[in-house]
Specification:
2 copies of one chain form a homodimer. Chain A is built from 6 helices and 2 strands. Chain A is mainly alpha-helical. Chain A has a single domain, classed as Winged helix-like DNA-binding domain superfamily/Winged helix DNA-binding domain (Arc Repressor Mutant, subunit A, Orthogonal Bundle), CATH 1.10.10.10. The longest helix of chain A has 34 residues. Chain A starts with 8 loop residues before the first helix and ends with a helix. Chains A and B meet through helix 1, helix 2, helix 5 and helix 6 of A and helix 1, helix 2, helix 5 and helix 6 of B. The complex binds manganese (II) ion (MN) (4 copies). One manganese (II) ion binds next to helix 1 of chain B. The first copy, chain A, binds a DNA duplex through helix 1 and helix 3.
Chain lengths: 142, 142
DNA sequence: CAGAAAGTATACCCATGGCTATTTTTAGGT
DNA sequence: ACCTAAAAATAGCCATGGGTATACTTTCTG
């Protein structure tokens, strides 16, 4: 009869480490998605519009764009708009698709639409590929 | 025939503002939950154990405890353990219950248990009371 | 009960992501 | 064309949350 080995602390720590890593990219994900939206809706992504939609001051958006550039997700020419790189556009597409699935799943299990939209904005970033696949399977099989 | 009024930018911004607010309390929630766990399992919550389980260096845990004290969620006597206040214990209980429900819901929609545990650690903080209620109703009605 | 080991606090460092105030550039109107 | 208004960049501030290195207590052990 073997005892159940107690979970070692560093294993337990993994989930927190993961959550912290996710948090670090969450902002980038929301920005690339929003830049993509603006380009589609407006033909271009201006810093002022980006800031307004993200609910931050304009210099905050400018700094976020600087980070996107560093990460190779966006380009920008001073006083002109912001553009997505290949990588940025690809990320935006994945993020947009995941966002949709998360909202749909929440609605499917009975969350009111408005609330689903609100909560999904934070939840989405923590949804792994495996969880996303499970969500899609669940939605299909209803 | 009225057009559908386009969502004003500041409304869109609300969800991002909310996500940022949630993020600010997420760490506190995980710490109080873990402090509660340690007290139950070990009889006391030591800084070193807390740090190990959270996956951070010891001074990082010490600083987090300072913040918990400031927020009225914990007390601590130097070189002795950490304790929860009434408010801290109440928060820990709510957080623990919510965590369980989120994990169960993920499993219920087909997410593998291991993955559910991982993803839930981040997701839980973004689950509003309304969404939590919907999750509970869904789990009950299966 | 003295010395060593372990645990904790403290002092600094860094990056992120908010902000306001100000400067610089671009765009528009007369 | 010029002047002005709007947009964007820059500078400088703050809090948070991560880290190392080191000092200080407490605890254990011979
Ligand atoms: Mn989001
Ligand atoms: Mn989103
Ligand atoms: Mn958590
Ligand atoms: Mn948790």
């Amino acid at each position: 009869m073997t005892d159940i080995p107690p979970t070692p602390p560093e294993d337990q720590a993994d989930r927190f480490t993961r959550a912290r890593e996710v948090q670090a990219v969450a902002l980038l994900e929301d920005y690339v998605e929003m830049i993509g939206d603006l380009i589609v809706e407006m033909g271009e992504a201006r810093v002022a519009d980006l800031a307004a939609r993200m609910g931050v001051a304009q210099p905050t958006a400018t700094k976020a764009i600087a980070r996107l550039k560093r990460e190779g997700l966006a380009t920008a020419r001073p006083y002109r708009g912001v553009f997505l790189t290949e990588a940025g556009a690809a990320l935006a597409e994945r993020v947009r698709a995941r966002h949709r699935v998360v909202v749909e799943l929440l609605i499917a299990v009975g969350v009111p639409e408005k609330v689903a939209e609100l909560d999904a904005e934070g939840i989405e970033h923590h949804v792994s590929d495996e969880t996303l696949a499970a969500f899609e399977a669940f939605l299909k099989s209803r």
